């Protein structure tokens, strides 16, 4: 997918550096507000769909800092419903993996993506409880804590690990159908509660694929740059409705992407 108006790489690089610094401050706030291990805190927006005080506080911090630095940029945030148009648009999930965060678990993150029109061009995924920061700029590589990453080289599905996100918008029968299809290939299935970190795991080779039948742009905007730069294969998420609502996302290591996609009955870019 391309955008019509050229952009200056240096402009994107400066914004990526700013986003990383803002993500670190947002992570410190989230860690300070993090609940202790135990039953979930906060409220629910729906079945297994949690909302904590931290979600709003972190999004507010990120939105205010980005607006102060780049008032001409657009902004899309998950929680406050903030929308502002611009040639460049920030797409933010303040706490991805809120169900984990609300229970004092470690697998959650802050995701800040930058879009140029319909094209993801930069992103930061900061998982402070895991001490991990992923960064990527289109055309300049993907990194974990400053070290370049790439998708897995595994070519045998019998040694592959695949994550499938759970959503109340998907019926149990459909979810089970896809899990059975993967397991018939000898795949090890799992579900860990953060779409952004599942994407990051594919980008750095910790797992070979990730399937989410309904996911939103704020969950994946940063991660899609990671995937592109790490050499992973993805489905056409943006083209099938991901820009404006929930859509299917599938991504996989290149050597087994085709086989897994056929099993899951999904198209690839």
Automatic annotation (TrEMBL):
<keyword id="KW-0479">Metal-binding</keyword>
<keyword id="KW-0378">Hydrolase</keyword>
<feature type="binding site">
    <location>
        <position position="219"/>
    </location>
    <ligand>
        <name>Mg(2+) 1</name>
    </ligand>
</feature>
<dbReference type="GO" id="GO:0006020">
    <property type="term" value="P:inositol metabolic process"/>
</dbReference>
<protein>
    <recommendedName>
        <fullName>Inositol-1-monophosphatase</fullName>
        <ecNumber>3.1.3.25</ecNumber>
    </recommendedName>
</protein>
<comment type="similarity">
    <text>Belongs to the inositol monophosphatase superfamily.</text>
</comment>
<feature type="binding site">
    <location>
        <position position="95"/>
    </location>
    <ligand>
        <name>Mg(2+) 1</name>
    </ligand>
</feature>
<dbReference type="InterPro" id="IPR020550">
    <property type="entry name" value="Inositol_monophosphatase_CS"/>
</dbReference>
<feature type="binding site">
    <location>
        <position position="78"/>
    </location>
    <ligand>
        <name>Mg(2+) 1</name>
    </ligand>
</feature>
<keyword id="KW-0460">Magnesium</keyword>
<dbReference type="GO" id="GO:0008934">
    <property type="term" value="F:inositol monophosphate 1-phosphatase activity"/>
</dbReference>
<dbReference type="InterPro" id="IPR020583">
    <property type="entry name" value="Inositol_monoP_metal-BS"/>
</dbReference>
<dbReference type="GO" id="GO:0046872">
    <property type="term" value="F:metal ion binding"/>
</dbReference>
<feature type="binding site">
    <location>
        <position position="93"/>
    </location>
    <ligand>
        <name>Mg(2+) 2</name>
    </ligand>
</feature>
<dbReference type="InterPro" id="IPR033942">
    <property type="entry name" value="IMPase"/>
</dbReference>
<dbReference type="GO" id="GO:0046854">
    <property type="term" value="P:phosphatidylinositol phosphate biosynthetic process"/>
</dbReference>
<dbReference type="GO" id="GO:0007165">
    <property type="term" value="P:signal transduction"/>
</dbReference>
<dbReference type="Pfam" id="PF00459">
    <property type="entry name" value="Inositol_P"/>
</dbReference>
<feature type="binding site">
    <location>
        <position position="96"/>
    </location>
    <ligand>
        <name>Mg(2+) 1</name>
    </ligand>
</feature>
<dbReference type="InterPro" id="IPR000760">
    <property type="entry name" value="Inositol_monophosphatase-like"/>
</dbReference>
């Amino acid at each position: 997918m391309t955008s019509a108006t050229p952009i200056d790489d240096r402009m994107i690089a400066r914004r990526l550096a700013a986003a990383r610094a803002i993500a670190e401050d947002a992570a410190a706030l989230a860690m300070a507000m993090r609940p202790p291990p135990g039953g979930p805190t906060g409220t629910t927006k729906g079945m297994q769909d949690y909302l904590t005080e931290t979600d709003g506080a972190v999004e507010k911090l990120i939105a205010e800092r980005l607006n102060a630095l780049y008032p001409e940029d657009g902004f899309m945030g998950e929680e406050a419903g903030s929308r502002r148009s611009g040639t460049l648009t920030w797409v933010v999930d303040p706490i991805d993996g809120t169900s984990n965060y609300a229970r004092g678990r470690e697998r959650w993150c802050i995701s800040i993506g930058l879009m140029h029109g319909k094209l993801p061009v930069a992103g930061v995924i900061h998982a402070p409880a895991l001490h991990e920061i992923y960064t990527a700029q289109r055309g300049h590589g993907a990194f974990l804590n400053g070290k370049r990453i790439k998708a897995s080289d595994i070519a045998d599905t019998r040694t592959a690990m695949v994550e499938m996100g759970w959503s109340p918008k998907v019926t149990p029968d459909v979810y089970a159908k896809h899990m059975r299809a993967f397991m018939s290939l000898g795949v090890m299935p799992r579900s860990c509660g953060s779409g952004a970190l599942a994407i990051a795991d594919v980008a750095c080779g910790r797992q070979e694929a990730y399937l989410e039948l309904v996911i939103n742009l704020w969950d994946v905007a940063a991660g899609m740059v990671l995937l592109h730069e790490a050499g992973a294969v993805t489905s056409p998420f943006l083209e099938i409705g991901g820009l404006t609502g929930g859509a299917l996302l599938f991504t996989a290591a290149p050597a087994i992407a085709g086989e897994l996609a056929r099993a899951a009955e999904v198209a690839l870019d």
